[in-house]
Amino acid sequence: DYPYLVSWRTISRVESIRAVAQFRAKDEKEAFDSALKIIKFGQLAENSGGGFIHYLVGSAIKGIGLRDIQQMTAQTTLQETNLVELIHELDNFKANKEGLTNALKVEYQTECKYLDDLAAGKNPMTNSESDQMPISFGTKLLFNPTKTKMKFAQADRVFRDGISKPFSEIPWSDLPVAETNFSVWKHL
Predict the structure, then answer these.
(1) Which of 1, 37, 61, 143 has the highest CB neighbour number within 10 Å of its CB?
(2) Residues 34, 54, 111: CA angle, nearest 5 degrees
(3) Dihedral of the CA atoms 151, 155, 160, 163 (nearest 10)?
(4) pLDDT band, very low/low/confident/very high, at 139 (cuts 50, 70, 90)
(5) Radius of gyration of the chain (CA)
(6) What does the pLDDT look like over 74-101, one tens digit per residue?
(7) CB 121 within 8 A of CB 129
């Protein structure tokens, strides 16, 4: 539960309204600066050290600022030198591989903790030993925690390595395949 993420997006929308109002009031330089603040804030959210949801919210926030810049650029009367400065400033906020990598690491650690709790018989949702989960049949676990962790790590590497590539060039075939074609007896 991350209620503050909603606040982050709300702050960005308010700043977006300010940027549009500044632009309409012919304070174009300030308007572009406000839009750039939104993008910087989005980058901070991507790098906040949270999980993948934090990265996605940061990316959405950056999108708000970029949309504002696109709309204002089409109607601006600013000199070319001001726009060139803006372009150079925007170069600092390309695809954030470091932020995504850190978010994937946090997700992986969270998933591993969840699997360890599950393998220990704890209910990961309540983190209570008294609330046991039926995850074994006799003494054999219904899943292999180590193997599952390896598959999660493999999937995260595919995502991390593909961030700078066009979607069609990401090696999706390298994602681990779930073993779902068990016989009915094996499922039981």
Answers:
(1) 61
(2) 170
(3) 170
(4) very low
(5) 23
(6) 999 999 998 999 999 999 888 788 898 8
(7) yes
